[in-house]
Design goal:
heterodimer; A: mainly alpha; MetI-like fold; 11 helices; B: alpha/beta; six-stranded mixed beta sheet; five-stranded antiparallel beta sheet; 10 helices; Phosphate_PstA (chain A); phosphate transmembrane transporter activity (chain A); cell membrane (chain A); transport (chain A)
Chain lengths: 295, 290
């Protein structure tokens, strides 16, 4: 170890690894905590959902009897809502990110916008619900609890996340590629269109899809804008009332019948989680596909 | 300190440099410049006049006056941070992309100051191609890489144009038949030749090269050097390099920038390397410069 304890030229001594091992265990425990909790949750709801989650549940409308209750209208509502949110947030988010990364100069205004986007990403969803109620329902009269209002409201909620993800993806495009493009006599728009966007698209899509995953689980803003707790048919237009899976699950959980509280709610939760995890898997697949193509 | 550099050539026949015979009004005509040998002449394509570049408060390039002859290889050498890349990138206004960069003086291309109000840097770059230090092909197919300039410049993309550019870049034989595979699948040296093909496909008048071989192995480097000499038949080549042997091998004219962004000596490559006028240049070339 230290020079004075060295007895022989070839005796290097030993350095204690005890603290290393303790530290490793602590970090491992931290890593396992979340995963184990999630696993326990999944096991519990899956066990409860057995016997309830079947084809009849997925394809039927809600029903006062637990045995005949289904999630179909809410499932379709959630998926349609998500598609609408994607259509709203993708162009707005990418547009804002392109402006902030490629056009805006690093001035006070840019930093102000940037700071506010970061802050907006942390605003509680119920506040966005309030905004949606005031802006879209009352001011613009899009109607209580309609698909359109919900799409705009939840879009506002996840827009900051999409913008930040798109900004990061655009920033990660190597400057050497932009230089190559400008050096060829390309305009800024040509450079963004031909070089920056194709290269950053996987990152933008991953970020957007993960944000959509957050959107599909949101309940509070839907309650605020008056989305009905239970609907029996699928929405037939932008101004139609609809329901979404988290709303429906929330409603079932307040039923007095324990068959609803455990079985039907669990079946709904599992359905929601499966949809959510599928979306996240798609995001990961897209990312991996393009990452291997690029390297 | 700055004005004697271009007239440092002791040969009296070289009497048409900017500082001794200013030519107001008549810049659009390419003036001839007598070379050291006094026989061959080449018109000036690019010419800087007291060109200085600042990055914020820092001066990266001292006022520089030099003339770059047509269809020759002009090498710019010097130690790191001597302003050689800055000078190169001021020719096609790539420094415009840096927010804090500021340019004083004039940089004339075919007699026109490219920093005039009415010059569009994008249009300028369509006439002056550029090859960068690190090979930077787009993550697209080989064909799309070569066609990029033609595409953005609104020119017709033909198979012949792609093939010609790849042949000129001495890459055709290696990529023939796999034009649709990614440019990133090529080796480093091939990627750099692809970048050269990309630069020459729209047929620019000048090709700027910023240390094009510094990231390559010796074999690839020698291929690029052969290619540069070949390109000088059709194009004016300006190459920045920190490799003095490379400059000596491939260039007709050499400019030596030294620390502080100062052009110390500019002239025929042979003379610069055999008989430099300034002691600092000799020290640098012989490796004594520290």
């Amino acid at each position: 170890m230290a020079a004075e304890t060295r007895t022989d030229e070839t005796d290097f001594g030993e350095v204690s690894r005890l603290k290393d091992r303790v530290f490793e265990s602590v970090t491992l425990a931290a890593a396992l905590f979340g995963i184990v909790t999630l696993a326990v949750l999944l096991v519990y709801v899956t066990v409860d959902a057995v016997g309830w989650l079947d084809w009849q549940f997925l394809t039927s409308p809600p029903h006062p009897l637990a045995e005949e209750a289904g999630i179909f209208p809410a499932l379709v509502g959630s998926i349609v809502l998500m598609v609408l949110i994607a259509l709203v947030t993708f162009p707005l988010g990418v547009g804002a990110a392109i402006y902030l990364e490629e056009y805006a100069s690093d001035g006070r205004l840019t930093r102000f916008i940037q700071l506010n986007i970061a802050n907006l990403a942390g605003v509680p969803s119920v506040v966005y619900g309030l905004l949606g109620l005031g802006l879209f329902v009352q001011l613009l009269s899009f109607g209580y609890g309609t698909l359109l209002v919900a799409a705009f409201t939840v879009s506002l909620l996840i827009l900051p996340i999409v913008i930040i993800a798109a900004q990061e993806a655009i920033r990660s495009v190597p400057d050497s590629l932009r230089q190559a493009s400008y050096g060829m006599g390309a305009t800024k728009r040509q450079t963004i269109r031909n070089v920056v966007l194709p290269r950053s698209l996987p990152g933008i899509m991953t970020g957007t899809i993960l944000a959509l995953g957050r959107a599909i689980g949101e309940t509070a803003p839907l309650i605020m804008i008056g989305v009905p707790t239970t609907v029996f048919g699928v929405p037939n237009g932008l101004f139609a009332k609809f329901s979404a899976m988290p709303m429906q699950i929330y409603t079932w959980s307040s039923y007095p019948d324990t068959a609803f509280q455990y079985g039907v709610v669990s079946a709904g939760v599992v359905t929601l989680l499966v949809v959510l995890l599928s979306i996240n898997s798609i995001a990961i697949l897209i990312r991996n596909k393009y990452q291997t193509e690029r390297s | 300190m700055t004005q004697d550099m271009t007239t440092s050539d002791p040969d009296e026949s070289d009497g048409t440099t900017a500082s001794t015979s200013p030519d107001p009004g008549g810049f659009s005509e390419a003036r001839t410049q007598t070379t050291q040998e006094g026989t061959s002449t080449a018109p000036t394509v690019v010419e800087s006049r007291d060109l200085a570049v600042y990055y914020g408060d820092e001066q990266a390039l001292q006022p520089t006056t030099m003339e770059i002859p047509e269809k020759q290889v002009t090498a710019i050498i010097g130690p790191s941070g001597c302003g050689k890349s800055t000078f190169l990138r001021s020719i096609n206004r790539m420094n415009d992309l840096i927010d804090v960069a500021r340019v004083e003086g004039e940089l004339r291309f075919r007699g026109k100051n490219v920093y005039d109000e009415d010059v569009d840097p994008v249009a300028l770059r369509r006439r002056i191609g550029m090859v960068f230090q690190k090979p930077n092909p787009f993550p697209k197919s080989i064909r799309e890489n070569v066609a990029y300039g033609l595409n953005v410049q609104g020119k017709e993309v033909t198979d012949e144009a792609v093939e010609t550019a790849l042949r000129r870049a001495a890459l055709w034989e290696e990529v023939e038949g796999k034009l649709d595979s990614s440019g990133l699948d090529l080796s480093g040296g091939q990627q750099q030749r692809l970048c050269i093909a990309r630069a020459i496909a729209p047929d620019p008048e000048v090709i700027l090269m910023d240390e094009p071989a510094s990231a390559l192995d010796p074999v690839a480097t020698s291929q690029i050097e052969d290619l540069i000499e070949e390109l000088a038949r059709d194009y004016t080549v300006v190459i920045v390099t920190h490799n003095m042997q490379q400059a000596a091998r491939i260039s007709d004219k050499t400019a030596v920038f030294l620390t502080g962004g100062e052009l110390v000596e500019f002239g025929e490559t042979n003379r610069i390397f055999e008989n430099p006028e300034h002691q600092r240049v000799e020290d640098y070339i012989t490796g004594k410069f520290g």
